[in-house]
Amino acid sequence: MPETVEQLAAVGPAYFSVTYGAGGSDRQGTYETSIDIVKRTGIPVAPHLTCVGSTRAGVAALLQRYRESGVSRIVALRGDLPATAISSEAPGEFRHAEELVRFIRDRHGDHFRLEVAGYPEVHPQALDPDTDFENFKHKVEAGADGVITQYFYNSGSYFDFIERCRRANLLVPVVPGVMPITNYAQLSRFSSACGAEIPRWIRLRLEHYQKDRAALQSFGLDVVTRLCDELLSAGAPGIHFYTLNQAGPTLQLWRNLRLPTPPIKSGARD
Question: What is the 3-state secondary structure (H, E, C) of 241-266?
Fold first, then answer.
């Protein structure tokens, strides 16, 4: 993990986002990882804060710890529901991310930059697309500064989402989420869980390359590079890479896209 962070830090990302464990099970680990990243790299972090299993007192205490540690960015999410959940509402004192955003704003004003999640291809548990977008709108209007989307491979879904935001007068930046393709079985499993569509032509090619790891990763790199290039060329405010704690695939995308990197400091040796 430290090596991965340091490799990614070398290209100068705007910040690192740090996820929770499934079901909000790793709150302390998220805090410790976030603070360690800042100490190691000096790069800002955006720890994830979820509603699942949270109390107002617990969230208030954690926010104060983050604030005292110099953290000024939070990704506010509902979070993954436990496997035993029978409702679409999160168990705990916060049922939806909108409530969490309002709580943070009420307690800390504008101290934290708040990012929320967006689902261009519709949240997998949404009743319908319109209800899903209305819920998203409430999160933004509650005080979000920006949006990070779920990953996708169909750029049209992102552009449609941006147009819906524009029509709804939601003017915050919407950063597309992109996940490198390195393993078909893993990608298929993740996509089924989060509702991300793998376009048929991509899925068929990945299935064909399953026994040829090099060919699969080369194809995946080409697909995601083209996707990122299209998004950035069309005016996306950046890219949020889902690295899955691997530096190599994201760094190769960074090089392919010719994204800026910090200049070598004076006196540094090869």
Answer: ECCCCCCHHHHHHHHHCCCCCCCCCC
pLDDT at 91: 61
Cα–Cα distance measured from residue 41 to residue 133, given in angstroms and rounded to the nearest whole number: 37
Supply angle C-alpha 107, 113, 117, rounded to 5: 105
Q: pLDDT tens digit string along 208-241?
A: 999 999 999 999 999 999 999 999 999 999 999 9
Q: How far apart are CA 100 and CA 95, in angstroms?
A: 8
Half-sphere exposure of residue 56, counting CA atoms within 13 Å on the CB side? 6
pLDDT digits (tens, 9 = 90+) for 150-197: 999 999 999 999 999 999 999 999 999 999 999 999 999 999 999 999
Output DSSP code: residue 113. Answer: E
Q: How far apart are CA 223 and CA 74, in angstroms?
A: 30
**Calpha distance 153→199 (Å, rounded):** 7
